[in-house]
Amino acid sequence: MILKANNMKVIEHEEFLGGKGTLTNTYFLNNEDACGTGRLFVKSMLKPGSSIGYHTHKGDFEVYYILSGKALVNDNGTEHILEPGDSILCRNGESHSIENIGDTNLEYIALILFDK
User: What is the pTM (predicted TM-score) of this model?
Assistant: First the structure.
């Protein structure tokens, strides 16, 4: 199955989970094609100064893999800077947030998978 870029669903969220600015998600895998493994399969983009608010995962876990830009992440109360090639794993019951602290767009792969 091929999914061309111009056919991918793109959704913009304002102040997502209490964050700042705009989050843009490009869905490269639809939930119905994921065989029950998860609920989010996207390339995310945050413009400079934009963020996703601090939140807790329940019944699932999330990983971010940084493609470009510079991120400030909060991993269970501890802040870290992530750059291209870095990743963060937020397990079931844990909390995190992400903010673009660079001067270019922050792009990353975001996957939310079910905790079985």
Answer: 0.95
